Amino acid sequence: MKVVIAPDKFKGSLSASQVCDAIEKGIKQFDSTIETVKHPLADGGEGTLDILQNYFPLEIITIKVKDPLFRSIDAAYMISGNTAFIEMANASGLQLLKKEDQNCYHTSTFGTGELIADAIDKGANEIILFIGGSATNDAGIGMASALGYQFLDVDNEPINPIGSELIRIAKIDDSEVKINFKKVKFTVVCDVKNLLFGPNGAAYVYGKQKGASDDEIYNLDLGLMNFGSKVHEHLFRSVESIEGGGAAGGLGAGAVCFLNAKMQSGIDFVLEQTKFRDVLKNADLIITGEGSADKQTLEGKVIKGVSDVAKEKNIPFAIIAGIVKDKNVIEKSINPVSINSIMDLNVTFEDAIKNAATFVKNIATEVVTNFQNHLKIK
């Protein structure tokens, strides 16, 4: 019997590799002769580069950039050959700010643009930009400003490239942009499908968790609408209906109009880059999982990506999670052979976090035991 172990991290508790180790121990506890293949995954959000390093060599480049509040910090990106892999969260991420400093009304993606500029200066002709975990809602005007774009108000004066200023944009000037888009290819990797503005847009869905008040969220949404209008007027691009345009505070849309980027699903990108389909040869079962599984899981997270490939290859798969919500919705939508969570064990949240590895190991033993028994009955 061969089991492929392909989970995401359990955020705040276990890395994806640690989840793999715990599941493998649980399987071997049941039967040490079972062949296991550990294949840790990510969905294109923060931490994806840590996963990719397991599969091919990446050189780390560290430079000084501006953080979301324009303070100088060290931030890293990675290079493989002529391809640069950039996580915007390293320069413009929410984790860079103290709780009291988090407010996407005042933050910028300028540092992300500095990472891109440095990579191009060092000879990169392909940029892979991961846009999860942002502290921003500036539609990428900060990033674009670092690359030479100018954003002007009605008096032809430059605006500060932050979220609150989107509403003041009257003109976009790209005459000073130095990137040769015929020589540099951009791909944006994201794990959400939100549109740029509106009730399902960047501001209304993510603004509150990034520190914005209700009034600020209302103004940010108006700003994103204005941004879309000015992009259409001055850059002759339409970004209002881009699936994923609202990712990272509108950076998804910004990357399309400023970088001529192609958008790609995060999990699809990671599955492709890590050659996930290749390891499934002769697999009898896939065990996947993530920290919290709910209906959002079905929108492009690791579990959904794995389930799609499992269905394509006609391989049964099981889910192990820290906590499961909307269980019936998940079961009906993707049809796992089983779905189990640590919180189903009636433990406290603190215990679940502290002893996650042990709980995952024990659940894995139960999963493979039940699967084997099911096969015998068949």
What does this structure look like?
The protein is an alpha/beta fold. Helix content is 37%, strand content 19%. It has two domains: 2-41 and 275-377, Rossmann fold, CATH 3.40.50; 48-267, Glycerate kinase, domain 2 (Alpha-Beta Complex). It contains 14 helices and 13 strands. Strands 3-4-5-6-9-10 form a six-stranded mixed sheet. It has a five-stranded parallel sheet with strand order 2-1-11-12-13, with helices on both faces. It has a two-stranded antiparallel ribbon with strand order 7-8. β12 (317-324), α12 and β13 form a beta-alpha-beta unit. α1 packs across α14. The protein is elongated.
Task: Explain briefly what this protein structure is.
The chain has 378 residues and is of the alpha/beta class. Helices cover 37% and strands 19% of the residues. The longest helix is centred in the C-terminal third of the chain and has 22 residues, at 356-377.
